[in-house]
Amino acid sequence: MNKKAQAWGMDLAVAAAIFSLGIVTFYIYTLNSSTETEEGLDKLVYQAEVVASQLFSEGSPANWNSSNVIRIGILTDSKVDEDKLIELYELVNSDYKRTQRLFNTEYGYYIEFSHPLEAGEYSISGVGDPAINSIEDVSSTNLIKVTRFTSYKGDLVTVYVYLWGER
pLDDT band for position 3 (50/70/90)? Predict the structure, then answer.
């Protein structure tokens, strides 16, 4: 009978060790997972603010075009400049990846206007990732929205800058 009691005691010790290891692993995973998520979201929020700030500047050089742009900005005298808006629209449609580099972001982005802006031959309601037509097409768990207000041809315009991680 002594051998059976010893075998049962050994089974209990192994089971307790496995159970303890499982609890410790789960605890460590949940702690690290929430931290990674927060850091990723903080980075996304920061990048959205950077893109919005760059967009709402004059850009560099002040009268930039697609061939000499260093930093994209659509304002002149704190108002949306029609020529810069057209340049942005054409640049995004021809080379979206380049605009991501110019905005210094790895995330997908879409810039939406509260109402379509008539610029030259274009009616622009939004610019950004060519794979989407509106922000409703984005299915991402992390989507950040930055709202800014500006003037275009004497009208108040609300501009929404969206950034997202993987879709």
Answer: low
Q: Closest Cα partner for 105 from 150, 148, 39, 45?
A: 45
DSSP 65-107: -TTT-SB---EETTEE-HHHHHHHHHHHHH-HHHHHHHTT-SS
Compute φ and ψ for 68, nearest 5 degrees. Answer: -125, 10
DSSP secondary-structure letter at 60?
Answer: B
Burial of 154 (0-12, 13-18, 19+ CB in 10 A): exposed
| pLDDT above 70 for 29 | yes
What pLDDT was estimated at residue 34?
A: 61
The greatest distance separating any two alpha carbons of the chain, rounded to the nearest whole angstrom, comes to 95
Closest CA to 67 of 91, 96, 51: 91
According to the model, what pLDDT value does residue 13 have?
84
What is the C-alpha R_g of the chain? 26
Which amino acid is located at 91 in the chain? L
Task: Find how far residue 116's CA is from the centre of its chain.
Answer: 23
Q: What are phi and psi of 56, to 5 degrees?
A: -95, 45
Q: Which two tokens stand for residue 167?
A: 């879709």
What DSSP assignment string belongs to 18-29?
HHHHHHHHHHHH
